[in-house]
Design brief:
The chain has helices at 18-42, 44-66, 75-85, 104-108, 110-113, 116-121, 123-148, 151-162, 165-170, 177-197, 200-214, 219-237, 242-256, 258-271, 276-279, 284-293, 303-318, 320-337, 341-347, 351-362, 393-407, 415-430. It is mostly helical. The protein has one domain (45-430).
Amino acid sequence: MTKQSAEYPLDTSVPETPNSMMIDVTLALSSTKHRAWQRWFRDRWLLATFVTACAASIVSLWYFFQNHQILLIGDTYSHMLIARRLIDNLTPGVAQLGGIWLPLPHLLMQPFIWNDYLWQTGLAGSFVSMPCYVVSAIYLFLAARRLTHNSRASFVGTLLFILNPNILYLQTTPLSELVLIATLTAATYYFLAWAQEGKLHHLIRAAASTFLATLTRYDAWALFLTFLILIVMIGWIQHQRRAQIEANLLTFGTLGGLGIVLWLLWCEVIFGDPLYWQHSSFSSQAQQQKLINLKLLFTYHDLWQSIRTYTISSIQNVGSILFALAAIAIVIFFLRRRITPEVLAASAFLVPFVFYVFSLYQGQAALFTPGASPAHAPQSMSFYNARYGVETVVPVALFVATLAGRGFMGRGHLVLPIICGIAILVQSTLT
């Protein structure tokens, strides 16, 4: 028998086969999923956020459904009708999506809209908004945790969103606000993660979330442009090479802007005008032009009135106490952290405020709310589109979390978290 040399010892291992390799891959994926679930349950505050959001969502749906209030806002009927027309119409098909409202909320209703009861009661839309509400709460918590590095403070801030009465109502309706808030919050969270860690997969996920957001409401188009600018600014701060910045822009822009391109192509193919959503007689611009002609659009080309109107609407949606706390938190946040990639990414949460001020100034949106509109404004329009201010709830909650987080930094310094928690509970009751 030939002896095996010491230099080349006998290999007694079992050769790998395709089956054994597949088992290894399966075990690796299973291990990865197991670790992900471990991380989820390890943070009890994240789990508390999920459970609290689910409970609040179900309870509020039961309340508003029992009181027949799901379809109180006029736009809810339009959303339900568009979603139903895709399958129940003389000429059913995707062309029934139209060219004014963006399509994602109506497409998400398709698994439920065929049922007459769910359609007539509005529950087909509720079953879309409710999961988006929970998703929004989770991503808000995760974003706050990235900024504060404190789960308790993140939970305190997220409670502001979860318990906000206006959010609780809107998440039971077929309106598109919660779909937008979910996609915007997810997009901004992943963008923040990319700014902090520089990992490409975070940027791709931010782009995917932005893609969904741009197919939900036009507000997200402003966020897409903001992200492009921030990618350049962050690259400059981090001294990235020009080729790296261009690669990041291409990676994000290709997927993140795909929804905008598809919508423009859709309007061109179906209606013969890529800007049909802007030029149509049913467009927001056309509706606002009637108010301009009647001299009733008081924010038109009046920057101060635009800022004042949206600020008051935000305060009425969030509550004066919490809005004041958030304003203080924002000042402290930007003064102490200066201009860093993290701060620039976090500033993207404020885009909805800037977007609506600009839209009001340009005459692209109308918002009437008590305290903001002049005394001679028609009483019938006293709460017209007042829900627009609800988009500031997420940034207010985020920055209140950063304020609460400062109180958890040392032992015995729980004054700020306690104040924030009490303010949230009191304001949620009063709003």
